[in-house]
Amino acid sequence: MKIRTNALAGIALAATAALGLAACGSGTSTGTGPTGSDGKVSGEITVYNAQHESLTKEWIDAFTAETGVKVTVRQGDDTEMSNQIVQEGAASPADVFLTENSPAMAQVENAGLFADVDKATVDQVPAAFRPSTNKWTGIAARSTVLVYDKSKLSEDKLPKSMLDLAKPEWKGKWAASPSGADFQAIVSALLELKGEAATEEWLKGMKENFKAYKGNSTAMKAVNAGEVDAALIYHYYYYGDQAKTGENSKNVTPYYFKNQDPGAFLSVSGGGVLKSAKNAAAAQAFLKFITGKKGQEVLQKGTSFEYAVASDVPSNDKLVPVKELQAPTVDPAKLNSQKVSELMTKAGLL
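Request: output the structure for the sequence above.
Response:
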């Protein structure tokens, strides 16, 4: 995972008005927060952010410019933030929670801590990019890829499935960052798609075959430097490096498994409003904003290289179109981070 900066200080001030979010359409949320007589939101919100800090800052800056709502951010990784919210429970100062991957969202949902997402927001996001429960919503997505050394592997030598990486012929040839939430989300999808026995068997083979690195960027750098033939990561690490100097990716190429393979998993980044939100109206408005046209255009035009998922906004034109990824269908609400941690620990990967 990327290096996080220190969290910004502060907690959102409690709101006093009790009007619903009229400006954001009729929804199922029953939270309250300050709205003016014209239905516009105001006040402050606190966001627990496990997304890219730079991406979330772009969203916040645009939202504040449009609404005047002040946003305070607490930064951390997926598991850190979800565990904190669960521990804080109804006393959490968070109004909104944003993640990179779905399992952390499912953890908070399973603890019963999310309010329903307003219908106007749900309507902006296709069903493929949100949980069936509508207790939170997708805000972006990232594709699983195998980046490989072009000088060591020809296309005909690449694995047909991610599951092939557990076979003996791949011993010592590939890398991953098992301690990160990114990789654990991929394993969560494997568990949902193939079941516990198949996942346990694959993790056992992985333990025998792979080389561990700390972070996806580091794993890709290892491939680029010739230390290992390939690495299982998310796509945007490659495209982000290519958009800069390309020095850490000049010798690698991303390979997409496709064919609804577990290795074609498209991980949904989530956003949700806490039941305990002090300013639920502004929190719901923020979620509606980032899944709306302006929010999704930040993905389309920016340098995060994550996939846009809502409001019919196309993704960055440098990316392989979502339809061509042939990703398997996975309900994000069913991804089980706790079970994955147990299985990975049992396999000696954590």
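The first strand starts at residue 44 and ends at 49.
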